[in-house]
């Protein structure tokens, strides 16, 4: 349809909406029929892929050098000039397709998504989304300004985390209290911001005709395949199965540390990840898996070749084509991510490797997302490649687990058997504690968004959070820390910025554990199923994506019990090596 469109995004880096507009116009004016709808969708895909890849490339360039004002200017100007008109143009095409009543092949799920997007779309909400964004920026500002004075030096809170490795318990306690007191100093500001968030969200839901924000958010998040009640069942299953397992795990930590009760600073110092088990009862130097980025790439490639030859080949392609930017350098943006270049049909991984095991774990995770890009690239329409997070995180979390057996050097990986066991132990322990913490975060939001008036009283939120904390978090002694405990919701960015977005990780983790379980009895068929499921992109409903991957999309205690038993049993085995 659009033969004269640039064949490569590199030729369109300076294109703006006025360049794309004639193409959108053509699509909009086309009379849709059963005969031409496939070509029409293909044309829309060509446009969308090009726009997306230019966006990804500008975003990558900006994060590769945040000190380059030109890269920043190009990125921001693209976002600002493209986003609003693009949303409008897409909205018109969606409406056109839905109203045509046509049912293109393989388009059932995207069509279902579009219908709901149109159903909840209200022009009156557009300024409210902007308002919500601004409030989000305010949250970032408050948190970003938090520093503490530690050993005479003013440092950001994140830097305090290294104290978790200090064997002196009183030093850890001091650092923990310092970090959490810093959050408490912003208590009033965060409470005030919270009420503003709730007012905006209440209005958004009302404008779209919903009586609760929960109902609105459910549709906006495209949650077609599960209900709020399913999530409540998941919480109950976690309480029944995960909490006792976590208590056993933390009891092990308590005994290893030789303390009377396990206090929060016996787990970690990080206020944003209260349940991560980072304190090492046997203080040892950090794992040093590699000496150079070249070595990080080569060993990771060897691991993927062991998992599956095709996946190994994908990673080799990324190395060959310069699709990895792994090393930490001055002026790189923080964190790590995987993005897609849909015209080139390639992924790109960005991260900040500093020589620690975390880098290996991040790379395995992001590579799982990258494999998703490779596997789903042949799908003809871009809407089929939009994968729900509940499944996308199986690609990544599943890969962390599938790759774990190959971490030791005798399997092509990095470590002695004892060090490999140490790395895997930490990962598996944190899977257990994550489910419990996730249940608190999710259950809290269920309460907030069905009782929004009550939730405008921060004291009521404190009480609700504390009650949920007591329900799901056992085995850690929070006595005498009531204010710190009650304000835990202040420290979870998602609760403020990305409402309801969290249970996805808990569900995907359960799916990933099932994929891993399958691989233990038959590696090659489990990986084949994993790849088949990735190849479906977002073209099938969640239960089918899970099933194809060899897992059940589940919320029940029985499924969770199988996963937890496997994790506990593996922890047991690894502890023996360790
Ligand atoms: Zn991920």
UniProtKB/TrEMBL annotation:
CDD domains assigned: M3B_PepF (cd09606)
Annotated Peptidase M3A/M3B catalytic domain residues: 164-562
InterPro entries: Pept_M3A_M3B, Pept_M3A_M3B_dom, Pept_M3B_oligopep-rel
One of the GO biological process terms: proteolysis
A molecular function GO annotation: metalloendopeptidase activity
Names of required cofactors: Zn(2+)
UniProtKB keywords: Hydrolase, Metal-binding, Metalloprotease, Protease, Zinc
One of the Pfam families matching this protein, by short name: Peptidase_M3
Cofactor binding remark: Binds 1 zinc ion.
Coiled-coil residue windows: none
Similarity remark: Belongs to the peptidase M3 family.
Protein name: M3 family oligoendopeptidase
Organism of this sequence: Candidatus Thermofonsia Clade 1 bacterium
